[in-house]
Design brief:
- It is built from 13 helices and 14 strands.
- By secondary structure, the chain is an alpha+beta fold.
- The protein folds into 4 domains: 94 residues; 92 residues, Pseudouridine synthase, CATH 3.30.2350.20; 78 residues, Hypothetical Protein Yqey, Chain: A, domain1, CATH 1.10.1510.30; 112 residues, Pseudouridine synthase (2-Layer Sandwich).
- The strands form 3 sheets. Strands 1, 2, 3, 4, 5, 6, 13 and 14 form an 8-stranded mixed sheet that branches. A 4-stranded antiparallel sheet has the order 9-8-10-11.
- Strand 13 and strand 14 form a beta hairpin.
- The longest helix is centred in the middle third of the chain and has 25 residues.
- The chain starts with 27 loop residues before the first strand and ends in a 5-residue tail after the last helix.
- The mean pLDDT is 95.
- It catalyses: uridine(13) in tRNA = pseudouridine(13) in tRNA.
- One of its GO terms (biological process) is tRNA pseudouridine synthesis.
- It comes from Methanobrevibacter gottschalkii DSM 11977.
- Pfam families: TruD (PF01142).
């Protein structure tokens, strides 16, 4: 069984409690721990939203549409789960007038509540958050009390060792797990394949209508594909519109496929190569965790909590920093300029690229260089704090906070020891 896509190693030895999550969206609650709290003054309008069963990007596009402004004026610190209740700040830039402020307050966005609307001086950018707080109910357990005890044991251990910093399914898409495959095609410099994987490529767990639309694309019937596309295919339609237009002028070229990809919102365009990097990163983490999650190994590249590389320490000093969560070993998010570790760790990192028949240079994505990546070193573990598990009538309620950019499902898979989505 593939757990979390290329994530193959556990840190904790307890038998998993099993169970299920997300039986209903309300069972999974996420709240952003912000870096910036707007102070009530300034040209930008901040909204503290609570959304249910929607992606952050969908809410942002709806707000831009209803205000008749460019989506480029919208900012947020991070993407939050769709299948959950989530709270986060959304920022709308340059809304100076009182009238504009009232327009924002008056918005009625599907399955989204505006809990606070307040002015702020600075724009909100991706990554400007400290972390996220989670409250997740695990249901369908044989023995709730015993499961809560096991979950607390696992959480105690993880607070001591850290959690493998795997990317979760959200990074790759679920049930249609193709984001990293589009990225792989881009890294192979094959734009036609990248577009085909996204628009075509029907899968059994989709509605019959959507499968037919994708099949029509694969068969070369672009207009038929466009007309068959149902709900939830907003982005495919954006791309197809470009291709239908271009196909009227003759055979489709790389430039046409490039224009189709450019029709997507920029954050989504960037997610493709990121997802492929994440897929390879998970493999590196699996192999590095086997060597010891909280152990310094000669040749490791170590980063501190600000993500700066730490140099010129003795092995004992490195180990002390790791023990205190002041620094962590890293794995590569592969890219054109990412440095490899040395010795056994470095060889493991290089072998992964060799096995996929690619080199660092592939991440240039020559045909769409803006989607290429220099890569970087990312911590191979993350810190979990304020962690507890409580037995309730319905199951075990797991509560914890984790660093930004890390996945709650990486914590849950250690507790449940099963595929967690």
């Amino acid at each position: 069984m593939i757990i979390m896509l290329n994530a193959n190693t556990y840190v904790t030895a307890q038998e998993g409690i099993g169970g299920t999550i997300r039986n209903q969206y309300e069972d999974f609650y996420v709240e952003e721990i912000p870096e910036i709290i707007p102070d009530g003054e300034g040209p930008n309008v901040y909204v503290w939203i609570e959304k249910l069963g929607r992606t952050t990007l969908d809410v942002v596009l709806d707000i831009a549409r209803d205000l008749h402004i460019s989506r480029k004026r919208m900012g947020f610190a991070g993407m939050k789960d769709k299948k959950a209740i989530t709270r986060q700040w959304i920022c709308i830039a340059n809304m100076d007038s009182e009238e504009q402020f009232k327009q924002v307050e008056a918005l009625d966005i599907y399955k989204t509540d505006f809990l606070k609307t307040v002015r702020g001086r600075k724009k909100l950018r991706m990554g400007q958050l400290r972390g996220n707080k989670f409250r997740i109910l695990v249901k369908d357990l044989k023995d709730i009390e015993k499961s809560a005890d096991v979950a607390n044991e696992v959480l105690d251990e993880l607070q001591h060792t850290g959690v493998p910093n795997y990317f979760g399914w959200q990074r790759f898409g679920k049930p249609r797990t193709i984001t990293h495959l589009v990225g792989e095609a881009l890294v192979e410099n094959d734009l036609e394949k990248a577009v085909g994987v996204y628009i075509g490529n029907p899968q059994e767990d989709e509605s019959e209508k959507n499968q037919k639309a994708r099949q029509a694309y694969d068969d070369g019937n672009l207009e038929e594909a466009f007309n068959l596309m149902g709900k939830g295919m907003r982005y495919e339609k954006m791309m197809l519109k470009e291709l239908v237009k271009a196909s009227k002028k003759g055979e489709l070229t790389d430039k046409d496929y490039m224009n189709a990809l450019h029709a997507l919102p920029k954050p989504l365009q960037r997610m493709f190569v990121h997802a492929y990097q994440s897929y390879l990163f998970n493999e590196a983490v699996s192999k590095r965790v086997e060597m010891g999650i909280n152990k310094y190994i000669e040749g490791d590249i170590i980063i501190d909590t600000e993500e700066h590389i730490v140099r010129d320490k003795t092995p004992e000093e490195f180990q002390e920093l790791i023990d205190n969560f002041q620094a962590s070993p890293t794995c590569p998010l592969y890219g054109t300029k990412v440095p490899f570790a040395e010795d056994a760790v470095g060889k493991m990192e290089e072998d992964i690229l060799t096995n996929y028949n690619i080199t660092k240079a592939n991440f240039e994505v020559p045909k769409m260089p803006r989607l290429g990546s220099h890569g970087l070193r990312r911590s191979m573990r993350f810190k979990v704090w304020d962690a507890s598990a409580t037995a309730t009538d319905e199951g075990v309620l797991c509560e914890f906070s984790i660093d930004k950019g890390s996945y709650a499902t990486a914590v849950l898979r250690e507790i449940m020891k099963k595929d967690v989505i």
